[in-house]
Amino acid sequence: MKPINQLRIQDEFVGFYLLKELNLRQTSGTPPKDYFDIVLSDATGQISAKYWDVTIQDKETFFPMQLVKIQGTVQSYRDQPQVKISRIRRATDDDGVSITDYVKAAPLRPVDLLHTIKLAIKSIAHEEIRMIVTYCADKVEDKLMHYPAAKSYHHAYFAGLAYHIVRMLEIGDFICKQRPFLNPDLIKAGIILHDIAKPEEMIAQMGIVTDYSNQGKLIGHIALASGWIVEAAIHHGISLDSELVLGLQHLVLSHHNLGEWGSPVQPQTAEAVALHYIDMMDAKLQMVEDALDTTAPSEPWTPMIRGLENKALYRLKIEEESVRSGNEKETIAPPSG
Amino acid sequence: MKPINQLRIQDEFVGFYLLKELNLRQTSGTPPKDYFDIVLSDATGQISAKYWDVTIQDKETFFPMQLVKIQGTVQSYRDQPQVKISRIRRATDDDGVSITDYVKAAPLRPVDLLHTIKLAIKSIAHEEIRMIVTYCADKVEDKLMHYPAAKSYHHAYFAGLAYHIVRMLEIGDFICKQRPFLNPDLIKAGIILHDIAKPEEMIAQMGIVTDYSNQGKLIGHIALASGWIVEAAIHHGISLDSELVLGLQHLVLSHHNLGEWGSPVQPQTAEAVALHYIDMMDAKLQMVEDALDTTAPSEPWTPMIRGLENKALYRLKIEEESVRSGNEKETIAPPSG
Amino acid sequence: MKPINQLRIQDEFVGFYLLKELNLRQTSGTPPKDYFDIVLSDATGQISAKYWDVTIQDKETFFPMQLVKIQGTVQSYRDQPQVKISRIRRATDDDGVSITDYVKAAPLRPVDLLHTIKLAIKSIAHEEIRMIVTYCADKVEDKLMHYPAAKSYHHAYFAGLAYHIVRMLEIGDFICKQRPFLNPDLIKAGIILHDIAKPEEMIAQMGIVTDYSNQGKLIGHIALASGWIVEAAIHHGISLDSELVLGLQHLVLSHHNLGEWGSPVQPQTAEAVALHYIDMMDAKLQMVEDALDTTAPSEPWTPMIRGLENKALYRLKIEEESVRSGNEKETIAPPSG
Amino acid sequence: MKPINQLRIQDEFVGFYLLKELNLRQTSGTPPKDYFDIVLSDATGQISAKYWDVTIQDKETFFPMQLVKIQGTVQSYRDQPQVKISRIRRATDDDGVSITDYVKAAPLRPVDLLHTIKLAIKSIAHEEIRMIVTYCADKVEDKLMHYPAAKSYHHAYFAGLAYHIVRMLEIGDFICKQRPFLNPDLIKAGIILHDIAKPEEMIAQMGIVTDYSNQGKLIGHIALASGWIVEAAIHHGISLDSELVLGLQHLVLSHHNLGEWGSPVQPQTAEAVALHYIDMMDAKLQMVEDALDTTAPSEPWTPMIRGLENKALYRLKIEEESVRSGNEKETIAPPSG
Amino acid sequence: MKPINQLRIQDEFVGFYLLKELNLRQTSGTPPKDYFDIVLSDATGQISAKYWDVTIQDKETFFPMQLVKIQGTVQSYRDQPQVKISRIRRATDDDGVSITDYVKAAPLRPVDLLHTIKLAIKSIAHEEIRMIVTYCADKVEDKLMHYPAAKSYHHAYFAGLAYHIVRMLEIGDFICKQRPFLNPDLIKAGIILHDIAKPEEMIAQMGIVTDYSNQGKLIGHIALASGWIVEAAIHHGISLDSELVLGLQHLVLSHHNLGEWGSPVQPQTAEAVALHYIDMMDAKLQMVEDALDTTAPSEPWTPMIRGLENKALYRLKIEEESVRSGNEKETIAPPSG
Amino acid sequence: MKPINQLRIQDEFVGFYLLKELNLRQTSGTPPKDYFDIVLSDATGQISAKYWDVTIQDKETFFPMQLVKIQGTVQSYRDQPQVKISRIRRATDDDGVSITDYVKAAPLRPVDLLHTIKLAIKSIAHEEIRMIVTYCADKVEDKLMHYPAAKSYHHAYFAGLAYHIVRMLEIGDFICKQRPFLNPDLIKAGIILHDIAKPEEMIAQMGIVTDYSNQGKLIGHIALASGWIVEAAIHHGISLDSELVLGLQHLVLSHHNLGEWGSPVQPQTAEAVALHYIDMMDAKLQMVEDALDTTAPSEPWTPMIRGLENKALYRLKIEEESVRSGNEKETIAPPSG
């Protein structure tokens, strides 16, 4: 079964794919006929597809985010490959395929990511900090198994949020060793809490954000997470005026650094400054890595990336070249005589 | 007893004033002597003053924000009036003077302002909204009797915050009648809650802000008030996911309108849009009124006002002039012939 | 006859509608045929339509902004309703329909709006101010009967400008009572004059702006109105250097508050500050009201609104919910023991 | 008689100078004594000065902007030269000195500048344009003899405005020849009118702006000049809706290019674009020339210049150096062998 | 043979044109057929075209930027003219047509432009400056014969860069005469060097930029040219620390004036300030001239121009009108009596 | 010998200190007397000092940046401690003190920092990259022993630049292991080259920047370093068009990320993105660490830090508090009953 990024024009193929998008349309003929306008996807990419001559039964059978078995041909439409589907049926339990194999996902298993996050929480020495972090993480434990970190900005895939947290924990661990004045408990807590309300802000299925929630639009994940810390403190009888509640709320509230990026206060503790740059370091380099991964190796330039000042990335070809020997025309000598 | 804004150079006077600022300094002579560098104030203004030859006992007697009885002379120093204090003593209970008479204050009595605010709360029809507003207002009831609304931006005086709320309630009442699609309960709640955590954000005495609190700097009054709504809802068993908690948090979080002005989300309900403009209307016009009030009537221009695009205000003299009769030189006629 | 916002797919209907847009197009067939691409509108909304097989006579009969009688069927095209017109004719006098019934209009009759504006002018106590305001308002009296206040930003409908003025006069009246230091004559004059040159800036028909005039693009309504005040003063022999001409020009020139919003000077009189916020209060809340009105009540979110920081508005559902009783899972208790 | 920029510490001197600033102060001794804190100036620069032991008669004799005869010594105060005045008297007619010799002035005589401007007006071929320009220029003819072009930004000296206009006319003349599609009448008119209301905006004496007028603050020179064009057109019976009035108002209104720089509309005619850049070219290069002129030739860097992105200017020393012969250490050769 | 800007719907024509764009597409029929989607251009403009029934041989014959002979008919498609090509063949040497006649080009011949630039270089008096300028100009001499100055911003046509340099040299010559403190050698050098690396930054054919080069994207023409000056100095044994190398690098690095416009340093020499405004004056007025030239004379407004604050330009009609005689209704008289 | 940060008012002391600043002033008495206005410093901080009755010989003996032996008394002046110097002499070789002990310095020895940097260069696998980095580093090897990384922004002390490079190399090493797609040679090269021209941009003595050089102001360290790469490539006969020269120049040119921060191009390779965030991470956390170190441990807040959004930093006191047990008043319970 061919992965989508290997389908070429004129290929005929059979295989299981995800109905990432599915819309019912009508042809412009007389009388107009129903057809499905489809986006098929698997873990390697996506491709547009058409299924003509849709029946009434088809309309009640197929929906977005289902796994289906397809028989089709790859055609060319406006210079782009497009699948003409000749046969389609829903996947069944007997097919032995799992939807998680068909979505772009973090490179580590969710269960392992969650395990790492839990170990990090357990390693927080300060009891009250650990209790608050645990309370908040428990609220979204299920969603951490699959939520992305953002709609499209970065880590926009299955378990992307958990993966973002885990990589940040690695950076946090390094930076606490390099700069011992940082409090490792606060760094760990800040990393785990900073985006913890994202699953409440977004509505996602299989790592794909379809919309923001009302809470997400009207409160936002930053104020939501700050409220969860209040909740957790009340639940555990920890004073809301204590330095630790103050410090944790500050970490969450300030982690976007500037008001125009959504933070009502700016970083004013050592750990809050560190948290912002740990977050930036991981998010930006993940954008870079993902852009390079999803661009064909033969392409020197990736598409433009909104989170990187809307610039494309160039693959330098350092190794292949021989730049010194006998490249006479570039050698510049002072004039003789 | 002369109010400060009527003291003129060479006046000799006796009276009660507030020690708004008091600093111990040394003269540059040999040996240096201690003296007090003082700012005296009353409800009409302030003036700088010196008290020479400070004794050890004086140092233990006089502190900022005390009421004192002064005998002094107004001299001129660098073209500015300055009081040379010849005698000074602390005011006693027998003097029958009250500190509240010596600070700039809202034009209505705090007790009346608070009464108006409580009536407004009582008039909120929706029970849960009323319960949450009551819970939050109760937290700062004492401070509402005297706190200013800001350090210097607007309503920066005794009970300025309560006065700001009361005037906004008047505007809110009008606007709800003019535009019946607005929910009066939410408008009232928004007005009372929007700055309710200001007394927690600032440290103030007699209406004068001396600093921001740690909570104020690291969390800010907007996220603090949002957290109080969470607290109140938990206390009263109101679901945190309910539309009313969502709506109230949104009102508070969005009332500064833009991220760069401190709001992590922008107004996205009818009442949130209204609240922002009710707040602006009252704050800006109060700046105007206060600037005109504290500028001598003979001055056509006030000082520059930071909150009004850093512009000064001009007093138009519309009534005094006669602009039409016989003002020949301004009459412009088409050329004859 | 069905209003447009009640037409549903597969409806067959007959009725009078406005040809808001009408373009002649050709089909892609061989040979291509002419057809009309149409937008029908009435006071409740608009819908796209097609009229196939256009004759030479049709081309000379139908033009935009005409009232027509239509017989048609509602079909679905790209998931959107679209009318297929089977018969069409121009409305005649005998039909007893008026174009003003088919455009979105202010909720009050133009004649009543104009009457209110004239009463407000008459109530200006200061003779010269009243003369100048009258002179300027007379210039556009006819257009005040139907001009919108803006192309799309706010009050973009029949008599929208007059409606905007009238609602602002209500706010101005309230605020002058609340803050007696404001000069009511200047507030009224500022409200009436601030957008008085808008009809010269825009080209509009039936409340729909089709373009900006050359004067509008090269001078703008702010400098135009300032010039009208000069004209009026010359006409009435009022000194151009008088405080009242200065004050009126300043109100008009500064009412957009900032240079980047089109004001060459910033508000520097009490009334100029008030005018800007009265304008904002009315314009923003009208955007809110119009967005909610034109969004189906079943939709929780309106479309995005450019004038409100490009945000959509959410309809809170406060009344319907029961948020306290027995909502056990949300109740948070301190840990027992 | 020594010019100010040649006075050195320990010089004793006698001469005529301008009292650019004069303030009465008191010493800090007991009893305090009156003294004058003075800024002396002439066409070459300025220097601070003190006159001790001021008499009652002195206070009634000396005022700012007078010419005086001084006998004094140059001392050093805080590393800066400062004049100690031993004798002072007002200049009389018999002294044969003229205040115009003691202020920084444009390098051409005002009468010649005005003559050039009048010739330019006379050369405008289009009668109505010429009439309007004449009308506006006549309003400020007297002030053109001495007004600066700005308070400090550029051309801030005696007759600076007329000089700015004359140099711009030279540039305008060149650019109309280089690009014949530009209308020379409009270019000349735009140059003469663009800052024509500056003398109404500012209050200046001897080329030194002491303040902005009320008209200047509340209307600004841009809207003022636009109003003068309206006046002129009415006076001469030229239609306010004509293209030429539109074109002239647009030139004036748009010449600051952007809203945040004070222009309510942006340049939208060929001549308006040209006018903005002619203005910039002349204003910026004059700032450069003046900064270099008033900085001692031995200084490689001028002070920072606000109008040039707040940067200082460097004097390159191109001619003096010998940069090639035998400068072995800088010669970079490819590695041998 | 008709120029493109004179082709009208229903014209049948034969002629030579440039294949500015050519894309192979498929019809939506069954089976789909190949056709060419084409943009034809000549020196007067461009038009879209279709060539149906493309053969295999056609696909190997026709490519973008070729000259072809066309027989076609002008049809109307979506209200726009579109050519239906009936016959097409490549132009041959015997046809006597030259591609340079078919592209928009500077109004002077490249060979003359280059000659003028070389004369300017020769006239640089300072030997080392002349050597460096010569070295850099030689690097792109061939490309100066045809490269545009920008992709679309300004001078975006055949030899546009050379034309931009030549016109700037004219302005530079004038301004050096008007302000003798400017060093003419540096002005000439700055003008020639400021955009000298543009041909390395962009990939262009026949004056049409198709893309930016890797060097252009990753280094940019400003840092590239600064590096060329380093190269030239090394080549000629001129000290890299000399004032002249410093001055030349500064001219190039600062000529965009602000960091956000691409200059890592701001102008800080007299000549650098002058260079920026000479560049602006020429670029902006060329945008104006080109926009007016390519807009039909009957159109009062040009399209919007990105480089001119995204504004369109208006053609004033000053000459045609008679604005004074008997235009009674506009004459404003003071009230009589 | 007491370190400066332990001097208290009324201390009498003898010791060696650095004359960080020294200015000759005159007293205001008659006749005025010369005195030295001094700032003394050592590695722990600085303090102001006065030395009265300066002799002619003193003026020729003492200069800034000298080590001196002082006998003095700490007095109080305007509430600040100030040293009155009674005896002063220059330190001699026999005193056995080294200036490097008296300046704030990086926590590692310069010789060790340089050794680490050299090892990093040696570890670059790609020969040409290593050659270019070596060439550039050799240019400033001496200065790397003591130059700061900036005037005041961050690492503003002795060998601060080398320390900045070494800590960044640690981060770079970590991040290359965490994200193997990054090229370690380019990361190392980018880290060493990014600020390599800073010593040419600034004039510093003992880690204290006194000014920027002409090169620094007119070219800037970013374009300077880019030019050095050109030089190095020419020197080693490496093609200027090669991918590696392109990649290295791009790293240097883009490392400030945005045009307004001084980068003429934005990061567009994976390593350039990484370099910017490695730089930010180190610079910002060093600002944090230095601010906390130089603020007395008893102070909860540091001064404001310009590089951290102009915010102060707060020291959270997490460990000391007991926040849960019996803090009854903060425990919030749902209402009973």
Give a verbal description of the structure:
- The structure is a homohexamer of 337-residue chains.
- Chain A is an alpha+beta fold.
- Chain A has two domains: 4-102, Beta Barrel (OB fold (Dihydrolipoamide Acetyltransferase, E2P)), CATH 2.40.50.140; 110-289, no CATH class.
- In chain A, 38% of the residues lie in helices and 18% in strands.
- The first copy, chain A, contains eleven helices and seven strands.
- In chain A, the strands form two sheets. Chain A has a five-stranded mixed beta barrel.
- In chain A, a hairpin with a 2-residue loop joins strand 4 (67-77) and strand 5 (80-90).
- In chain A, helix 3 crosses helix 9, helix 9 (220-236) packs antiparallel against helix 10 and helix 10 (243-254) packs parallel to helix 11 (270-293).
- Chain A is elongated, with a radius of gyration of 25 Å.
- The model of chain A is unreliable at 325-337 (pLDDT under 50).
Average of pLDDT of chain A = 89
Multimerization state: homohexamer
The secondary-structure class of chain A comes to: alpha+beta
Radius of gyration over C-alpha positions of chain A, nearest whole angstrom: 25 Å
- Counting structural domains of chain A, the number is 2
What is the tally of helical segments of chain A? Answer: 11
Task: State which percent range the strand residues of chain A make up.
Answer: 15-25%
**Low-confidence sequence ranges of chain A:** 325-337
Helix fraction bin of chain A:
25-40%
Widest β-sheet, arrangement of strands of chain A = 1-2-3-5-4
DSSP E strands of chain A, number: 7
Q: Sheet with the most strands of chain A?
A: 5 strands, mixed, barrel
First-residue to last-residue Cα separation of chain A: 71 Å
Largest interface: A-F, 64 and 64 residues
Shape of chain A: elongated
Order of helices and strands of chain A: EEEHEEHHHHHHEEHHHH
